[in-house]
Structures are given as C-alpha cells and as structure tokens.
Design goal:
Elongation Factor Tu (Ef-tu), domain 3; 133 residues; mainly beta
Length: 133
C-alpha cells in the first residue's frame, strides 16, 4: 500500500524538527562498487564497497530554519545528530546518526513572485541506527 508524503515524514537536525520547512526529502545510500579486476580477468570484476549515506532536503525558507542550519553551514565540519522517519499507518521506520551529520551544499534562493526556497544535503558519516516500530 502506498503512503502519502505529507504528515508521514519527520526530519530532525540537532534535535530541531525541520519538517515544516521541507517539501522534499530523499534518503540516499550510494553503494560504491570497487574494481577488483586483475590481469587474469576476462571482464570487469567488482566487489561491494561501503555505502555513502546522505539526506537531501528542500522547501520554503524561513529565518527559523536558517537559525537551525545556517550556523553549521558556515562552519564546515560541525557534526550533529540527524534522523529521518517514514510513517505508514501505525508503522514507522527511522534512520538516525549520532553526531555524524554535516550540512553540505546549503542554498537559499528567491525569485520575483515566488517564495524563498532552500535546499541542503545532510552528509552522513557511518552507518545509521535503523529502528522499525
């Protein structure tokens, strides 16, 4: 059964709920493929590497959002707690990182006849803690 996004996704950064400032989220685990080919190989050979985790976010910008993300965006290397939770009915799956989330690619934009928009990537270090209830 499909689940609609609004009201069923929660994003926390440094214990601040930024969900109200998000109209899009994406949890990404890019798994690296390591080249294991050698001179005896007859085709490309690979082994699975480590996943690189990130959460892409974006939506309507507000000063309260900037107060939560802006200080860390201008101080690269600041690591905070982060989590994203997906809910479907009575079930919730949460991915969380303790002191391993950094703000990357923070952007704020505006246009005539448009609301200010923002986007950022939470670059995550290490494997998440996954909980399902």
């Amino acid at each position: 059964m499909a689940a609609k996004g609004p009201g069923n996704v929660t994003v926390l950064y440094n214990a601040v709920d930024v969900t109200a400032y998000c109209d899009q989220t994406e949890l990404d685990a890019t798994i690296e493929q390591l080249d294991a080919s050698n001179l005896a190989s007859t085709a490309n050979e690979t082994v699975v590497g480590f996943p690189a985790w990130s959460i892409s976010l974006g939506g309507p910008w507000a000063p309260a959002l900037d107060n939560a993300l802006g200080p860390d965006a201008v101080t690269p290397g600041t690591r905070r707690n982060a989590s994203i939770a997906y809910k479907q009915g009575a079930n919730t799956v949460t991915y969380s990182w303790a002191a391993n989330a950094e703000i990357a690619n923070y952007k704020v934009s505006g246009a005539v006849k448009s609301v200010h928009k923002w986007s950022a990537k939470l670059q995550l270090s290490g494997a998440p803690t996954r909980a399902s209830v």
